[in-house]
Amino acid sequence: MSELIRKSASELSELLSSGEVSSVEVTRAHLDRIEAVDGEVAAFLHVSSDALDNARSIDERRAAGDALGPLAGIPLAVKDVLVTTDMPSTSGSRILEGYMSPFDATVVAKSRAAGLVPIGKTNMDEFAMGSSTEHSAYGPTHNPWDLDRIPGGSGGGSAAAVAAFEAPLALGSDTGGSIRQPAHVTGTVGVKPTYGGVSRYGAIALASSLDQVGPVTRTVLDAGLLHDVIGGHDPLDSTSLRDEWPSMAAAAREGAAGGALTGLRVGVVSQLSGDGFQAGVRRRYEEALALLERNGAELVEVSAPHFEYAIAAYYLILPAEASSNLAKFDSVRFGMRVSPPGGGTVEQVMSATREAGFGPEVKRRIILGTYALSAGYYDAYYGSAQKVRTLIQRDFEQAFASVDVLVSPSAPTTAFRLGEKLDDPLAMYLNDIATIPANLAGVPAMSVPIGLAPEDGLPVGLQIMAPVREDARLYRAGAALEALLLEQWGHGLLAEAPELGGK
Amino acid sequence: MSEISEEQVAHLANLARIALTPEEITSLTTELDQIVDSIAKVQEVATPDVPATSHPVPLQNVFRDDVVGQTLTREQALANAPERTEDRFKVSAILGEEQ
Fold first, then answer.
1. Substitution target from A97, A101, A240, A367 for chain B, most B beta carbons within 10 A
2. ipTM for the whole predicted complex goes beyond 0.90
3. How confident is the model at residue A19 (pLDDT cuts 50, 70, 90)?
4. Which CATH superfamily is domain A3-307+390-446+460-496 in?
5. Is the pTM of this model over 0.95?
C-alpha cells in the first residue's frame, strides 16, 4: 500500500508545498486504493474520471508559482447529496439516477477554488434518510472495521472512504447526526458546524431547518482545514450567516499545542449516557472524561431534561419538511419519469414516478410528514414539535450558562450488523438520540474517536457540543483530546483497523 | 392504538402523489401507527406558554440587491427534462376524461 494514502491532509499539504510529491502522485495513490478496496467497502457511487487532469493542473499552477491554499492538490470525496457539474448527483435515490447538475454546490465550488481535487461521489441513505446507508438505492456501504457491519448514516460513504484511506478528506451533511454518527462507528472525525455557518446551496435539501454541511476527516486539524475552505457567507443561501469566522485550523493547532483543557468547564449531559448505551461505549466515554479531568478540565454534571423529547420532535419536523422539499420530484423538470400502463394524466404520471423512484424509508417519511402537516393534526404534532425545539434550545442555553462545552457519547452503540435494524424503523431512529439535539438547536458539534469498545473491538466517538457560533471551541477541545489519546496510543485509532484488499 | 386507518394512508398517499400498492398501504399503516404513538409524546411538554421555534438561528429580512444575477440558460434548465418540446417542458394531459 502506498504510504501516501496513510497521511493526513495536513501532512500531504507539507509534502505538496515542499515539492516532495505531486498532486498527480497523491491523487493516483488514492484512485489505486479505491480500485483495490472499494469493491468490498462500496463507499463510492461514482469515481471521477477528471481527477488526474485536475491534479495535473494544480501541479502546473504550483510549478508556475501560483499562490495556493493549504489543501491545494489534495483529493476530496464528496457526499452524493451535494451537486457537481462533472459527476452525477443522485442523493442515493433511483429518482435522480444519472442526474447531471448544471451548477456546483457552493461548498464544492469553494473546494475547487481552493485547489482540492474531487475524486468521487460517496454513498448515502436515500435523500439522507437513515443511519446505516442501507436505504441507499444503490446498495449499502460496508464498515472498513468489519465489512458485515454498517458504516453509519446517512453519510456512511464519506466516513468509510476516509476510514478506508480512499480519501484523506470528505464532505458530508448532517441533519440529525449524518456526519457524527458515521464518524463514531468508523473511528473518524466529523463536524456539524453551526446552522448557517456553511452554505447549503446545492445540497439537495432534506429538512431545511436542520441540514448543515461539514467536514469528514481522520484528524481534527484536517477537519479544521476543510472547514476553513467551505465556511462563510453565501448570498445564494438565505440562511447563511454573515459572521466573520476565526480559523478552525488555527483553533485545532492551538488545542493540540497543550493547555487548552486547563480550566475548561465540560458539561456532562446526564440524559445521554445511561440506559440504552452499550457498556463498552460507556467505558471509553468515562475514560475520556477522566482523561479530560486529569488534564485540567472541570467536569460538571448537566441536566437537559427535554432531550428525551428530541427524537419525537425530530421525527415530526424532519418528515414535515422533507415531504415539502421532495415535492419537487414531479417527473416534469428533472429526474425519472414513469408512465402508468396506457398513459395517464400528469398527476397519474407523477404518482407512478414517485412510487417507482422512491424507496420505502422515503415513502414512509413523506407520508408521515404529510400526516403531521394535515389540517386537524398540525397543532398536535408539528406545532408541538416546534415547541419542544424551543425547550431544547433553552436546555442548551441554561447548560452553556455554566459550562464551555457539552459532551456525550456520539451514539449509543458501536456499528451494528447490516440488516439488523432495517425492518424496525423505530430502532433505527434511536441511533441518533445523542446527535439530534444539536440539530434542533442549531449548535455546532463534533465527533472525535476515543477508542475501541472492549466487547467488540469497534470504534467509539465522543461528541463535543458548543454554543451557536462557537465552532472554534470544538476544534480546540477536540484537538486537545486527540493529542492526549495519540500520545497514549502511540498511533491513530485507524492503525488498528484490519487490512483491506483481500477481495 | 390503531388511530391510523388504511383509508387514511391511502388518502395521504394521494395527497403526496405516490401510487402506493395495497401491500405498501397495509404495512405503512402498521408502521405509522407505531411511529405516531411514539412521537405523540411531544404533546406532554408542548404547553400553550411555550413559543414555537421554526429556525434554530433565525435571520430577518435577508435581501440582496435587485439586479440580475447568474441564472441558468434555457438549454441548461431543459437539459434534465424527461421530455421536452422545443423550449418547453412536455407533460401528458392535465385533465382526465372524467374531469
1. A367
2. yes
3. very high
4. Amidase signature (AS) domain (3.90.1300.10)
5. yes
